[in-house]
Amino acid sequence: MKKIILLSLLIVVANSCKEDWLELDPIGEKFETNYYQTEEEIFSGLVSAYSILQPKYYSGWSSYYFLANFPSDDAKVVGGGPGDRPEYHEIGEFRTVPTNPAVLQLWRRDFYGVYRANVVIENADPEASQKSKEYIAEAKFLRAYFYFELLRFFGDVPLITGTLNPDEYNQPRDPAEEVFAQIIEDLTEAIPDLPVKSSLGSGELYRATKGAGQSLLGKAYLYMASPYYQQTYDFPKSANEYYELAAGRFEQVIGGIYELEDNYDDIWRYSHEHGSESIFEIEYANISRGGDWGNGRVNGGNIDVQMSGPRGISTDTLLAGWGFDMVSKDLIDAYEAEGDSARKYGTAYGEDFLNEIGATDWEKTEGYTGWYSKKRAPWAHITFQSSPEWNFETNERMIRYADVLLMCAEAYLQSGTGDPLPLVNQVRERAMLDPLGSVDMEDIKLERRLELAMEGHRFFDLVRWGDAASELGELGFEENKHEVFPIPQSEIDNSNGKLEQNPNY
Amino acid sequence: MNAKQYASYFREGRRYELMTEGVTDPEDVMDELDNAYPFNPDTLGTGTNWMNEIFQSAPVQQHHLSIQGGSEKTKVFASASYYDQDGIVGGSKANFNRATARVNVDHDAKDWLKIGTKISYTNLNRKQIEENNEFGGVISNAMAIDPLTSVYVDDFDDLPDKYLAQVTDNFPNPENSSLKAPGDKGYYGMSPYVQNEIVNPVAQMNNDHGRWSQDKLVAGFYANFKPIEGLNIRSSYDIDLSYGNNHYWTPRYYYHSVNYNYRNNTGRSTDKWFTWQLENVANYKKSFGDHAFDFMAGMTAREYNHFNLNGYGEVLQEESWDFAVLDAVLSDTTRAAAGGYRDENRLFSYFGRVQYDFQEKYLLNATLRADGSSKLAKGNKYRYFPSVSLGWVVTKEDFPLPDVINFLKLRASWGRNGSIGSLGNFDYVSTIKSDAESSYYLSGGNKLTGAEPASLANPDLVWETSEQIDIGFDLYLFNNQLTLTADYYKKTTIDLITTGPVPLYVGNDQPLVNAGDVVNSGVELELGLKKKMGDFSYDISAQASYLKNEVTYIGNKASTLLGANLGTTGAITRAEEGKPMWYFYGYQDDGIFNSWGEVQSYTNDEGNLIQPNAVPGDIKFKDINGDGDINEDDKTMIGNPHPKWSFSLSSTFTYKNFDLNLFFNGRAGVDTYFGAYRTDLNMNNKPEFFYDEAWTTQNTSADFPRKTVDDENRNFSHNSMFVFDGSFLRLQSAELGYTLPEKLTSKAKVEKLRVYISGQNLFLLTKYPGDPEVGNTGGYGGSSIGVDRGLYPRSRILSIGASVNF
C-alpha cells in the first residue's frame, strides 16, 4: 500500500509541471510591449534618443565628427601610423570601401537614433500634457537631426517613421527628396513646441531648443538650394526659393537671444559650454567609470579628445593623447595667408605651445603635421582623475551662432533678399580682422572655412558647393563617388539586396 | 627582443627607411637616428628581460584523504582534499586554493527501498591576474614594454624626467605610495617610450588586489523503489547552492602619462546561485527467452536562480585590505554606487527509452526526449529529440571467424539533441533596459537615466539542434590484448543560434536567431594494446581523430558573419558558407618584395602600383578581388583554427613494484594566429623573430618583412605572415611510482604504500613561437579560436607524493 502512495505521489509531481511552469517574467525589467505608458517612461525613452548622439565608439571606432572631418583638407588622420585604426585612414585617404567598419557604425548610430525617436513619437500622447508635447517636439527634432546626418553622408536612405515588423525589415532606399520633406515636416511641427533656450534650467541645457530647430531647418533648406544638391536631386522648388526659405529661418534666430562670444578661443573652452553663441551641443561628461572596448557603445566622455592629443607627452596642462585628427598644413597656411591669428590660435596649437607648457619627446608618427586640434585638446582639468581617456568633458558644438550668421549671409547673397555684408563682418570683427567692403561667394567660403575649421563642416560645405573635386582632388576625391560614403555592405546583404550601393563603390 | 636588438631594430629600420626616402647623407642620417632613437645598441647589453621578471616557479600542494566503511545495509564514503597553487605569473597574487569535503551514504532500508544522500562542500579562493588580453594583460605587457626600462629604479629622481612633474604634483609622498616597490627595491620603473595600455607588468601585478572566494554546497537525496520484479523507480532531488564574493581595491598609481589613477577605490560584489533539480525515472526490465527488453521513462525539472548585489566606492582612508570596506570610503554619493540584479530560468524534460536485444547479438536502442525551456517563447519552448542505435555482435554468431578475433561489434546510430546554452533568459522578447548605454551623460557631471528596448524581439527562436550519425565497430584481438575501435561520424548543427542578420537601419540590436548550419565530420580511431609478461606488463592506448569543420549555411545574403576583434585593426575571425567556422580572416601575403623592380612591376590594369607605399622588404599582398588596390575587400581566409588531426597516447608500464605512466597529446593540420603584439604602438617591444628573421638587403630570403618603423605598407595588418602552423606534440604528464613491498608495510598496518614522482607538461614540440594550444580566448563568445593574445602559459608541474591505503 505504501508503495502505491509513493508511486502516485511521483505521478502527481510529474504531471503538475506543464508549460505554465516554464512561463517566467523578467525580474526588474519591463517588456517593450508594456512600457511607454507614463510620462516618465516616455521621457526615459527620449533620453535614450539623446544618448545615442553621444557614442563615438560603438562596438568599433566611429566618430561622427571624425568621419566628417577626415575627408577634408583641414585635417590629417595620423595616430600611431597607417596601421592604427585603418578604417579612419581609409576615410581620410578616400579609399573607403563598403566594408569599412566605421561607416557601418555611423550608419547604425543614426538609425538607432531614428528608432528611439520613433518610439517616443509613436507612444506619446500630445494632448496629455505640455511636457508630452515638448517631448514629442524634441523627438521630432532628433529624428530630423539624425536623418539630416544620414542624407549628408549617404544620400538616399530608407525613410522609417515607425517601428517595423519583421516582414518589413527589407527596406529599399527612399529618394533623398522624400527624406528632406520629412525633415522639413518634423522640424516645422516641432519648432512651436520646442523650449526657448533662455527658459531652460541649468540641468536642461542639453535639450533641443526652438533656436536649434530653426537653425537646423534653415540649414536643410540651404543644402537643398546648394549647387550639388540641386544637380543631384529633383526638389519641388527652385534653388532661389530654398535660399529664401533658409534665410527666413535664420532670420528668426538672428538678433534674438544668441550672441557671438567675445573671444574666439573661448568658444570651445569648457567654461563656455552652452555659452551665448551655443545653439546645440552634444554633451559629454566626466563621470564614466571606464568601459571596455568590446561590444557596446561608449557613453560618457568625449573620446575624440583623447584621440586628438599629442602622443607621449606628460604635462600638467595637457594630457597625452593618441595623435589623431592633426590640423593640416593647408589650414595653417590658410590662416596665415589671411593674417587670421585669432582663429588660428583658437583652432590649432603647435610645437611652440608644447615647448611652452614643458612637453618633451612627443611622438612624431607617420603623417605628423606639427599642429594639433585645440578644439578637442585634452586639457588636464576637464577630465577625471582616473580613467582620463574615458572622461573628457568637451561638448561638441554642433550648431553655433557664427555658423548661422554665415549661412544666412550665403542665403542672402544667393537669393538677394538681404544684405550679407554686416553678417560676414560681424564674424570677422570677432576674429579681429578688417571688415570687408563687399561680399561674394568666395569670401563666404573662406570665412566659413576659417571660422568653422575642425568642427566637421568643411567636407560637407565643399560637397554642396560643388567644390569638392577641385579642392580635394589631390587628396584622392573622385567626382560622382566621394560626395557620399558607401552604403555599408552588411546592410545591403542583410536587407537581402533591397538596398542598392552608391555609384562607383 | 633584448635591449640591443630593440635599439638596433629601430635604428636599422629607420636607417633603411631614410635610405628609401632618399636621405643618404651620413650626417643627416645619424642626426635623424640619434634624434628619434637616442640609444647606442652596442652599450645596452640585454636590458630587462620582462618575461623572466614576471614568471617564477610556484609551489603546488595537493592532499587527499578518503575513508570507506559501513555495515551490510549501510555504506559510507567520506573524503577530504586540499589543493593550493601559486601562479607562475604573480606568485601568491595569483594563488588558488580549494578545500573539499564529501560524505556519501547509501542505505538499504527495505528489500524494495534503497535511500541515499551525498553532500559535498567546497571552499575556493582565487586571486587572479589579468592575462590573455592584448590590451594591458600582464603577459602582453611583458611582451610589449621596452627592454631599456628597468623594473626598479633606486631613486625617485631616476624616473623619466618627463613624468616627474606630474608624479610630484599628484603623489606628495611617493615613498608611501604604490610607486614604491616593497622592501628596498626602490621605485617601479616607468617606460618613457611605450605608453597607452602598456605598463610595467611587475608594478601592475603589485597593484592588483583582487580576491574571489566561493562556498559551494552540492547535495542530493535519492530513493530507489523496487515495487515488483524488474521495475525500478528512482526519485532524486539535488541542489547546488553557492555563494561567491568578489572583492578588490585599487591604489592610486602612476604608470606613465597615459595610464594612471589618482583616486583609489574598492568594489565588492556578492552572488548567490541556487539550482535545484528533481528527477524521476522508472525502469522496467523483462526477458522472454532470447528477447530482452528494457523500458525507461522519466522527467527532470530544474530551476536556476542567481542573485547579485554589488557596490563600489572611492577614496580609501588607507590603501590596504583593512580599509577596502565600502562603509569606510570617503567619496561623495555620485562617485559611489550600489547595484544588484536577480535572474532565473527553468528547464523541464520528459524522456523515454526502449532497449531490446536478441541473444545479446542484435541490439536496438531508441530514445525520445522532449526538452522545454523558459528561455523560449510560448509555443517554441519544447522540442523533441529522438535517437536510434543498432548494434550487431558478430562474434556471437555461429559462423566461424578467425580464432584471433575475440570480439567484434558493428554499430550504427542516428540521433538529435538540443542546446540553448548560449541563450540569455529573455532573448526571445524585447525587454526595456535602463543602463549606462541608454543614459545621457551631461557636461558638469549629471547623468540622465534613459531606457530603451534592449534589442529587437524574436519570438520564433527555437532550440539549436545537433544531429549526429555514427558508424563504427569494436574489435578485440589476440586474447583481448589488442583492441581497436573505429568510428565515422558526421555531426550537423542546425538552427545554430547566432546574432540575426537583420539590417541595422531597423533601429536596434539584432536579435538572436536560428541562422546557421555547421557540419563537423570525421573519423575517430582508438587502439589499445596490453600484455603481461612475467614481472613486466604494459597497457597502451592510442587515439587519433580526424575532423573537418564546415559552415554550410548562414542566414544572410553575404553568407558571412564577422567574429572576434584583435588589436586595433578589426575582426580576425569570420564565418562563411563552405569554410571552417571562425577561420582567420586577413590579407594573404605573396612573399616579400625583394627589389624596387618587384614593387614597381606589381601594377593593376591601369598601370598603377597596387602597393604604392611599399619598399623592398615589405610584404606583397594578394589583390584578392582584383580591383587593383589593397583594401578591406582583399581580406580572405588565411588560416583554419580547427585541427585536422588530434591524437593522444596514454601508456602504463609496470615492472615488479615500479610503475610508469606517460601521456602524450598533440594535433596536426591546424593554424594558430600570433596576435600577442600590438600593431598600433610604434615603440613597443616585438618578438625576437621579428628581428632575427627580418628581411634585409643582405638576407632577402628571410621569412619576415623588414624592420618596420613607419609601417606605411601595413606589414603589421592582420595577414598571413602571422599565421603559424599550430601543430604540436606534448608530453602532458609522466609519473613514476614505486609501491613498497607488502611485507615491509604490513608491519606498520599499512595495506599499500606507494610513492611517486610526476611531472606535467614536460616537453612541447612545435614550430610555433610559443604554446600553440591557445583554445578559445579573449571573451568573444566562442569566435576567437586559435588566436594567441598573450596567453597565461601552461605551467610545468613537478611533484612528489605518496598514497597510503590502510
In short, what is this structure?
The complex is a heterodimer of chains A (505) and B (806). By secondary structure, chain A is mainly alpha-helical. Chain A has helices at residues 2-16, 39-51, 64-69, 86-92, 101-123, 130-154, 176-190, 210-225, 227-232, 239-253, 303-308, 329-338, 341-347, 351-356, 401-415, 421-430, 441-452, 458-465, 468-472, 489-494; strands at 75-78, 278-282, 324-327, 348-350, 371-373, 396-400.
Describe, in plain words, how this protein is organized in 3D.
- The complex is a heterodimer of chains A (505) and B (806).
- By secondary structure, chain A is mainly α.
- Among the domains of chain A are: 36-194 and 467-505, Serine Threonine Protein Phosphatase 5, Tetratricopeptide repeat, CATH 1.25.40.390; 303-394, no CATH class.
- Chain A is 45% helix and 5% strand.
- Chain A has helices at residues 2-16, 39-51, 64-69, 86-92, 101-123, 130-154, 176-190, 210-225, 227-232, 239-253, 303-308, 329-338, 341-347, 351-356, 401-415, 421-430, 441-452, 458-465, 468-472, 489-494; strands spanning 75-78, 278-282, 324-327, 348-350, 371-373, 396-400.
- A two-stranded antiparallel sheet of chain A has the order 1-3. In chain A, strands 2-6 form a two-stranded antiparallel sheet.
- The termini of chain A are far apart.
- Chain B is mainly β and 806 residues long.
- Chain B has ten helices and 40 strands.
- Chain B has a 21-stranded antiparallel beta sheet, with no helix packed on it.
- The mean pLDDT of chain B is 87.
